[in-house]
Amino acid sequence: MKNLTEATALATEFCDPTQTTVQEVSALDAADLLAFTVPQGLSIQAAVDAASAGATINIEAGTHTSSGVNVGTPSLKIVGASAGTTVIQGNNPDGLDTTSGFDYGFSLSAANIEISGLHLQDYYADVNLGNAPGAYLHDLEFSSSRIAIRTPTLHNIDGLRFEDSSIHDTNSGILLQHGKTNPTPARHVTFDGLTFADVAHKGMYLEAFTDSTIQNIVMNRVGNGYGPDNVETPPSTALELNLKYHDHGTVTLSNIEINDSGWSNATADYSGATTPTHINAAALAIAVRDDGGYATNPAALSNLVLNDITITGAYRAIRLGEAKVLEPASVFTTGAASTVLRGLHIAGSGEFTIANYTLSDVDATNATNIIDGYRVPDDNFEIEARLRHGTSDARLGIIHLAPDSVYAIASRSLATTVSAAAANDTIHVSDGSHVLDSTISIPGSKALTMRGQSWAAEVSAPASGPSIYFDVYGSGTTIEGLSLISLGGTNPQNLIGIKGADVSIRNNSFSGVYADGDGAVSRAIEVSPGVQNVTIDGNTIHGLRQPAYFNPGVAGRVTNNRVFGTRGWVVDGALVDFSGNTWRETGTGVSENYGCDIALLVGTTSSAPYDDLVALAAANGGILLNLTDGSSSCDQR
Description:
Layout: H1 4-14, E1 35-38, H2 44-50, E2 56-59, E3 62-65, E4 69-71, E5 77-80, E6 86-89, E7 104-108, E8 114-116, E9 119-121, E10 125-129, E11 136-138, E12 141-143, E13 147-151, E14 161-168, E15 172-176, E16 190-199, E17 202-206, E18 212-222, E19 237-243, E20 247-259, E21 282-288, E22 300-312, E23 316-321, H3 329-332, E24 339-347, E25 352-357, E26 362-363, E27 370-371, E28 374-375, H4 380-384, E29 387-389, E30 399-400, E31 405-408, H5 414-420, E32 426-429, E33 432-435, E34 440-442, E35 449-452, E36 457-460, E37 468-472, E38 478-480, E39 483-485, E40 493-498, E41 504-506, E42 509-511, E43 522-527, E44 534-537, E45 540-542, E46 546-550, E47 555-559, E48 562-564, E49 569-571, E50 575-579, E51 598-600, H6 613-618
Parallel strand pairs: 1-2, 2-5, 3-6, 4-7, 5-8, 6-9, 7-10, 8-11, 9-12, 10-13, 11-14, 12-14, 13-15, 14-16, 15-17, 16-18, 17-19, 18-20, 19-21, 20-22, 21-23, 22-24, 23-25, 24-26, 24-27, 25-29, 26-30, 31-32, 32-35, 33-36, 34-37, 35-38, 36-39, 37-40, 38-41, 39-42, 40-43, 41-44, 42-45, 43-46, ...
Antiparallel strand pairs: 27-28
């Protein structure tokens, strides 16, 4: 207190009203009057108004009915006996009455205010944070209000800490709003040790959050209903970052558990019987706004880390971006793998586990990620089926399950997967039927590896479909482990066309419906003129007119292939080494091809490696059909 008059007035207000004398106040120096006690029935506001900076106001156990407390003195500590015994009771059940404006349990407008040990209920918002940097809220309980903690659009909450508290039976938990003209986005904020239960609309909704951390959070049955206006828009979510208007730095979410949340429907049903009514409803959602009115002042997020996230019983578990707006990499993240997911444990999601509606890549390669019992990297095909990239078909920002890799599953377009892959990526193709409706081109700017899960990864096209399955321009490309199937047709079919150098075709199965005498031309492979260093190794090829056609100037090697039911390899002025190839479905012996095993056309060299046909035969099963017997049908030189 500044003087005896202030101290006497305060003591008078705090005394028992049945007493007729003021309790003794002595030693009235300000330094000695930094602690106050508020018993049940007396005014918390009066104590706050009388306190000096740095004072502690102790609120005794009991129920304290209050129309709201404005705290404008810095460094105050407001301490209840405990959240279980000290209740701050408002007069607005569930915070629904806003006819006279908004009522707040505590409204903070000064720096470094600490509040602890209280249970607040029945306000529009239990705590309103305005110009309140350094606020420290802990060991609190919130219930039966519309919002537990909120900010106006203009605020300063730099350094906010909210810890070791619970929010339950409210419409929303934490709402950090943010305005275009606000120069101070929520920065250096920590949410730690919080529990949420039965929060209907938004558990956490953060429009500004930079260089900040959310950790050790448990949410049960959050975001299953609608907002206070009881309409589906905006969608309900358990934890949502919807960042606006500023560049946002590192955001880290760690040790988050969300159960039975994010269903966003009129009945708040999370059993699975009622699906969400909004496309962007999710348990955990993170978006960075550059659409519509934000386009002139978009946000940006430079680094997002999700670590040890457990989500069970969600229809949509994690949403990055928004389904209605595809957010470019320049605003959502900058740099490679700047969105990192580690320690995911997601189970029981109805529609998807992770959806990436951005053009940024996401790193989910960590071996601690487990989705519906499937573990990275052992079960990546099963996990891929639970991911969503933009839409069910378009792969926009890739969620990577292995370094430099993308996954193609039978229920999605193989062509869009190839298109989305970066140079030097490996495309893992799942078992199942991949039917092409057009040629897939691998451009010269990409050296890709396309690898089948097994020969049960089948690539085909209808008889009226493309005449070339894969057109390979990218030098250094490898295609391996696939089963490529021709269903016939009247058009020539080259299952693979090679137009780039250093291409390898390994350990594939090529098959078709060709029979001797058919007029249609079908080939496993055609190599364009002049292409160098082609390797065709370890493949099984049958039921096609030709295993491959080598045009003039081609150089390469054909090794360890099993070829039958064809008219043989065609060498047209090319220089190709053959070794280790066989000509029967099983074993060795008489060829099961038609006409030739290897055909040497006019213009092909008579020098090595085709000068000694006996040696050529010895290197390829011991005999070459209609070639080593002096027949001109297979040696047309």
